[in-house]
Amino acid sequence: MGVVSLDVLRQMSLMATVLVMTATKVVAWCENKPYDMAGKETVTQIHFYFHDIVGAKNATGVRVAEAPSTNQSATSFGALVIVDDALTEGPELTSKLVGRAQGLYGYVSLEEPVLLMALSYYFIDENFNGSTLTTLTRNPFPDTYREFPIIGGTGLFRYARGVVEAKSHSFNATNGDGIVEYNVTVIHYCSPEMLKNNWGAHATT
Ligand SMILES: *[C@@H]1O[C@H](CO)[C@@H](O)[C@H](O)[C@H]1NC(C)=O
Ligand SMILES: *[C@@H]1O[C@H](CO)[C@@H](O)[C@H](O)[C@H]1NC(C)=O
Ligand SMILES: *[C@@H]1O[C@H](CO)[C@@H](O)[C@H](O)[C@H]1NC(C)=O
Ligand SMILES: *[C@@H]1O[C@H](CO)[C@@H](O)[C@H](O)[C@H]1NC(C)=O
Ligand SMILES: *[C@@H]1O[C@H](CO)[C@@H](O)[C@H](O)[C@H]1NC(C)=O
C-alpha cells in the first residue's frame, strides 16, 4: 500500500512515510482534537484494490434482502447486500491483504445502476493497523471514475475527512464479481512528527 504524508503548513516538503504502530499506540498518540491542532493537518494518500466477490460459493458479499418488485427492476432497485470485502495491495486477490471493507450497499435508483454504500474500511496492514475510515456515498458503479466522501475515521484517522477516487479495475458480468481501484486522500491530525516528538519512545520502528 503506497503511503505519502505531508504537513499542510509545509507542503513543499513532501515526504514518504512509513508508520509502524499498534492500535493501542494510535489511540494514545491521537488524543489531540482538531481545535487544538490548528495547522497540524496531515494529508495521507492510500492506494489499494477492493474485491467485491458476490458470485462464488465463498462470496464476500451476500444479498440479504430485496423488495417484491426487485426481480422486475432493470436496476435491481430494492436489493440490499452485506459485504466483508478484501482490500489488497495489488489487483489480484492473492496479493497482500491490507484491510477489509465491512458494511452494506443497496440498489437505490429506479432509472440507473446506482448503489448507496455505507462501508467501514478496517485496515490491518502495518501502516494503519486497527484504524478505520468510513464512506457513506452514492456509487454509480458503471461509471469509469467515481468519488466517495470520507465522513470520518478512528485510530490514526480520528476526525478524518477526505475523498476516495474509485475506478473499476475489472467486472465479471456473468457472476457480478468486481475489482475496484481506490485512491484515498484523507486529511487527519496524527502526523509522523507527532509520533516522533510526542510518542517516539513508544514507536516500534
Ligand atoms: C474462493 O475459493 C477458490 C478456491 O479455493 C479460490 O480460488 C478463490 O480465490 C476464493 N475466492 C475468495 C473470494 O476467497
Ligand atoms: C427473485 O429471483 C430469484 C432468482 O430467480 C429468486 O430466488 C427470488 O425468490 C425472487 N424473489 C422474488 C421476491 O420473487
Ligand atoms: C495489528 O495489531 C494486532 C493487535 O492489535 C497485532 O496482533 C498484529 O500483529 C498487528 N499487525 C501488524 C501487521 O502489525
Ligand atoms: C490513482 O493514482 C495513480 C497515480 O497517480 C493513477 O495512476 C491511478 O490511475 C489512480 N487511480 C484512481 C482510481 O484514481
Ligand atoms: C466470470 O464468472 C463466470 C461464472 O462464475 C466464470 O465462469 C468466469 O471464469 C469468470 N470470468 C473471469 C474472467 O473470471
How would you sum up this structure, described in words?
This protein has an 8-stranded antiparallel beta barrel with strand order 3-5-6-7-8-9-10-11. It has helices spanning 23-29, 192-199; strands spanning 3-7, 15-16, 42-52, 61-65, 80-88, 97-107, 115-123, 132-139, 145-154, 161-171, 178-188. The protein is 7% helix and 45% strand. A hairpin with an 8-residue loop joins strand 7 (115-123) and strand 8. The radius of gyration is 18 Å and the shape is globular. The protein is mostly beta strands. The protein has a single domain, classed as AOC barrel-like (Beta Barrel). The chain is built from 2 helices and 11 strands. The structure holds 2-acetamido-2-deoxy-beta-D-glucopyranose (5 copies). One 2-acetamido-2-deoxy-beta-D-glucopyranose is lined by residues 55, 172, 174-175. One 2-acetamido-2-deoxy-beta-D-glucopyranose (NAG) is lined by residues 66, 68, 71.
Structural class: mainly beta
Integer count of domains: 1
Name of the level-1 CATH class: Mainly Beta
Strand composition percent: 35-45%
The CATH topology annotation reads as: AOC barrel-like
The CATH superfamily bears the name Allene oxide cyclase-like
Order of helices and strands: EEHEEEEEEEEEH
Cα end-to-end separation: 17 Å
Overall pLDDT metric: 82
Name the helicity range.
Answer: under 10%
The low-pLDDT segments are: 2-24, 195-205
Strand order of the largest sheet: 3-5-6-7-8-9-10-11
Indicate the radius of gyration in whole angstroms. Answer: 18 Å
**Largest sheet: number of strands, sense, barrel closure:** 8 strands, antiparallel, barrel
Count the strands?
11
Q: What general form does the structure show?
A: globular
At CATH level 2, the architecture is Beta Barrel
Oligomeric category: single chain
**Molecules bound to protein:** 2-acetamido-2-deoxy-beta-D-glucopyranose
Number of helices: 2
